[in-house]
Amino acid sequence: MRLALPIKPNGKIKYLQCIRCGETYPVDDYFEGCPKCRDEGKPANLTFVYAEYGKECPLPYDSYSSLGEGNTPLLPVFDEFPSFYLKYEGRNPSGSHKDRMSAMIVTRAAEKGYEGVAVATSGNAGLSLASYCAYFGLKCAVIATKDLNPQVRRFLEAYGAEIHLTDTPMERWEILKRKKEEGFYPGSNYSNPPVGTVHFGVQGYKAVAYEIVGQLKGTVPDKVLVPASRGDLLWGVWLGFKEMKQADPSLALPAMIACEPFARLSRVLDGEDYTRSFPGETALKSIDGTTVTYQAVKALRESNGFAVEISNEEAEAARKELAKRGILLELSSAASYGAYKKLRKNGAVGEEEVVVAIGTSSGFVEI
């Protein structure tokens, strides 16, 4: 039985716009991104353009399905790093930043009359969407590889999710396309080369930027460190900062830093094509993958940011250090603090610079 959703679209939406070519489109679901760029073999996501911007984060909906996500703490962690803060997204209802996306996606799926939501995931997105779908009475199909964390699987089963396991990551996208044809709203990317998650979902991440500036009492950090694969969070947070600057041109903008387990975005910034494959191996499963997106590259280039590689060992050391301070992060999430330490050591981050690392998810499901 579905819970009656308090859905109210934002009346100040003007249109959608391609983040690459600038083409505009009426508001709709473009799961494969901009049709023009897709046909050119250069896939790119769309974003919302609003009639005005102010102090509040504009979202596609003024009223939407929520389990209380957002307003996560911004924590000072170490006395020796007084300008370093951790944005702890593990405090969201399902334990990760993905809840911000899920609120938008489940609302959109319900608004358009979809039977449920389907997602290709390594864990967190599946947990989040299964939780939100269960609460609001939609079906959820979770597609993961056979090495899915057994504890994650138990949670998914408890939420009543339909679970599909594959031999390879790319097989997940094929099943996701089939589920779309069966009446499920795609809650993640299924294109190759990828676009990223549908624009409705990415909008939910903008609030992270607004919260950070509010929690820093109006100060914009010099750098924001984000664990990244296909860059939904990286791009969404950057969008939030850009929108705040539209409302207040005097506001500074941070450099966005992507934390990745092996060279992908860094190779694109050095000149390689973003549509190619970048093989690599890592234990950082939430930011694994051999592909990148245009949105991730654009966030780094526009912000004068860069990508930094974090090894399994560096992430594990960072996780242990944070755990001793009472903050237990998923291994992939700890990559942002590992990146901070690495950049301080090599001089890429100065002692006085205000830096925020996004701790994307709790580590409890990995215990």
What would you say this structure looks like, in words?
By secondary structure, the protein is α/β, with parallel strands linked by helices. The chain folds into three domains: 8-63, no CATH class; 74-93 and 201-366, Rossmann fold (3-Layer(aba) Sandwich); 98-198, Rossmann fold (3-Layer(aba) Sandwich). It is 35% helix and 18% strand. It is built from twelve helices and 15 strands. The chain has helices at residues 35-39, 98-111, 124-136, 150-159, 169-181, 199-203, 206-215, 232-247, 265-269, 294-302, 312-323, 331-346; strands spanning 8-9, 13-18, 24-25, 46-50, 61-63, 74-76, 84-88, 116-120, 139-145, 162-166, 184-186, 223-227, 255-260, 306-309, 355-359. β6 and β7 form a beta hairpin. Keywords: Pyridoxal phosphate.
Structure at a glance:
The protein is of the alpha/beta class and 367 residues long. It has 12 helices and 15 strands. The chain has helices at 35-39, 98-111, 124-136, 150-159, 169-181, 199-203, 206-215, 232-247, 265-269, 294-302, 312-323, 331-346; strands at 8-9, 13-18, 24-25, 46-50, 61-63, 74-76, 84-88, 116-120, 139-145, 162-166, 184-186, 223-227, 255-260, 306-309, 355-359.
Fold blueprint:
Blueprint: E1 8-9, E2 13-18, E3 24-25, H1 35-39, E4 46-50, E5 61-63, E6 74-76, E7 84-88, H2 98-111, E8 116-120, H3 124-136, E9 139-145, H4 150-159, E10 162-166, H5 169-181, E11 184-186, H6 199-203, H7 206-215, E12 223-227, H8 232-247, E13 255-260, H9 265-269, H10 294-302, E14 306-309, H11 312-323, H12 331-346, E15 355-359
Parallel strand pairs: 7-15, 8-9, 8-11, 9-10, 12-13, 12-15, 13-14
Antiparallel strand pairs: 1-5, 2-3, 2-4, 6-7
Helix pairs in contact: 2-3, 3-4, 7-8, 8-10, 11-12
